[in-house]
Amino acid sequence: MSESVCHRCNEVITQRIITALGKTWHPEHFACKDCQKPIEEATFNIQEGEPVCSKCFVTNYSGTCQGCHKPILERTIKALGKTWHEECFCCGGPCHKPLVGTSFYERDGKAFCKADFEELFAARCAGCSKPITENAIVALDAKWHRDCFKCKKLFSK
Predict the structure, then answer these.
(1) What domain range includes position 139?
(2) Is the dihedral of CA 54, 59, 61, 67 positive or negative?
């Protein structure tokens, strides 16, 4: 039987042993690569093949969510040149619907669903005041839906 050698100190391990990352360690040597404190938690993170404690991971490696400004430890989304928790990437309009996996519109660094974007930013019809989302008629210094622009003949007495 081969002897286990500690990955950190290269000494033979004769008592308690930790096996992690395909290596063996003395418990006191299974330590965070950044702060050097022994990792006693059941969960830890990995950077450059070495263990990192949760505190150092949050401080040194995790991004910050643009939505809630908290550290990102799990699944993320990159959008608008920023990083978000999936649940924080939502419409910037009144509906606040999640936008993960959908198309969206951008305005001033914020993402919007189609409905809110049109309601908030689309040109308005001079006839009905509703958003114009397709081709419009431009006449009389205004934009009109095709159905809203009607020619009227004015008669004077």
Answers:
(1) 123-152
(2) positive
